[in-house]
Amino acid sequence: MSKHLQKPPGVPLREEDFEAQRVLSVMYRPKMRYSWATGVAIGRFLKGLRAGKIIGTQCAHCRRIVVPPRVFCEWCFRPVNDWVDLPDTGIINTFSVSYISTDTTKLKTPIIPAVIEIDGTTHAGFLHVIGEAKPETLKIGTRVKAVWAESTKRRGSITDIRYFKPAEWKP
Amino acid sequence: MQGSKTEASLLRSVAIVGVGITELKSSTPQVSYKELIFEAAQKAYEDAGLNPRKDIESFVCSSEDFLEGTSIFDEYVPDQLGAVLKPVCTISADGMYSLAAAYMQILTGLFDVVAVEAHSKASDIVNLSTVYDMALDPVYTRPLGLNASFVAGLEMSKFLHSRGAGTNHCRMVVAKNRKNALSNSLAMYGGIVEAKGESQNPVLSYPLTEYDVAPVADGAAVVVLASEDAAEHLRDDPVWVKGLGWASDSPTLETRDWLDATYVRLASKQAYQSAKLRNPAKDIQIAEIDDTYSYKELQHLEALGLIGDAKAHTLLEQGAFERDGVLPVNPSGGSIGMGHTLEMSGLVRVVELVLQLRGEADRHQIKGVETGIAQCWRGIPTTSGAVVILSNR
To answer: pLDDT, tens digit, for every residue of B357-391?
Structure first.
């Protein structure tokens, strides 16, 4: 506030003003629904997850292997049709420790989102979460392995991998 | 400042050097929107003889977040276009607006080769009408509880009444466009339908029936534009962008002109001016225009100023807009015959016009056309549209 204005002008609105309808308000809840087609690449990727496999693609031109897969190489702009089964291990490219939920409430147990570079890929990995780890023990470059949902519970979703957990380095 | 408008059009000539379009389909469950766009992009770059990673300098896309179900959709377009690590921007408007933006990027000398993209994944949207409902004012219109198609009903009512036209004329538009679509291999809804007699179709918002509405379709289109110098290196038959314009009427439902498509009147005036067409009715031999609703084709035709003071429905009765008429209108089948492709609709009109001017329009080719017009409308509840004039000379 300035020297001429010690407090904001007007009357602050309180929750009970809305409840008592002393203030005009309009409630509108959007009813948007979509049924996105996964397409060739993501469809095959999700089918792979249901089978407990991580599937990527390799560009025949630049040789880059990416996951999630795609039917074109965005660097070379060429069609891609070489499918590769990848291991479920990799390293943390970057991670964060998230203390806020999707509805913006504070989380007691934080979620650890991470970009995981799956072994065999070239600077391409997918986004997932880290489990079975204390945030303070994690480092960029920490080696991780997928923890899968039970096969009967997998449904062709990114959540078929429950999380990645720190793993031993294997020579 | 005097004369600056005409000087601007003299800066540089811009041509369309490549077009790519997928077949329009009522649904495409086998591919994602990215894969659909990739197909159109490949076709366009092949057509232009260009490698997007080397030769295309900038990309302009059209999308509307509510239609995608993803906010800030801009970030989802570069990969499938070959636009990674390049200048890209997305416009929340019909593809023809993106074409205008790309045209200006070249006109200024900033770039020589620019690609334009628009697509429709209408089959991904479970309740499309909600998107239109949400375009209404949330405070004083939505609480009335109306399906947004009432806006078309109001307009159709006013237009037919004041012109002395009937719903039979609207049915004639549908019959013409669906018949035209039969010869277009890209079109989804070709067919022979009865033009006369009372329609048994469900009324959506009187006098608008289901029959009057262009059914939606999926598809993707990419158009490559180039400066004069670049275009002449690329191909012998570039199609020149002679002029374009875009405009909005007073958009509110309370103050707009319910009778006249003022936005088209203004946009076409701008386009004729920049194309230096003194007598557009004489110079323009073919029109690919918006027919989201049957009556819209008639209303847009009158606003384009191509038929003088005549009434569109009278000329329609005389067969003036048939393929062998004085002014073929939507020989492609329009949105009614090809399928309405949301923000891609205007770009479909452009692609069809380019094919006509190159003499490559398949079984619906109009012989000997040199100059044509394409026009788009952004759909209900808007009063916005664009116009582009193309020529092979």
So the answer is: 999 999 999 999 999 999 999 999 999 999 999 99
User: Do residue A77 and residue B51 have CB atoms under 8 angstroms apart?
Assistant: yes
Which residues form the domain of B22?
4-126+214-391
Average pLDDT score, chain B: 94
What pLDDT does residue A9 have?
84
Q: What gap in Å lies between CA B91 and CA A81, rounded to an integer? A: 32
Q: How many CB atoms lie within 10 A of CB A12?
A: 7
Share of chain A above pLDDT 70, in %: 98
Q: How far is A169 from chain B (nearest CA, A)?
A: 34
- Listed residue (B82, B92, B157) closest to B118, CA to CA: B92
The CATH number for B220's domain is 3.40.47.10
A25 contacts on B by Cβ (under 8 Å): none
Q: Could you report the per-residue pLDDT of B267-295, keeping only the tens digit for each?
A: 999 999 999 999 999 999 999 999 999 99
How many domains would you assign to chain B? 1
In a domain, B181, yes or no: no
Domain boundaries, chain A: 39-166
- In a domain? residue B178: no
Give yes or no for A62 touching B (CB within 8 A): no
Give the ipTM.
0.90
Domain A39-166 CATH assignment equals 2.40.50.140 = yes
Q: Please tell me the distance from the alpha carbon of residue B260 to that of residue B258, in angstroms, as a whole number.
A: 6
Confidence check: pLDDT of B4 > 50: no
* Residue B355 lies inside a defined structural domain of this protein: yes
How many contacts (CB atoms, under 8 Å) link A and B?
77
Interface of A with B in 17-36 (CB under 8 A): 26, 28, 30-36
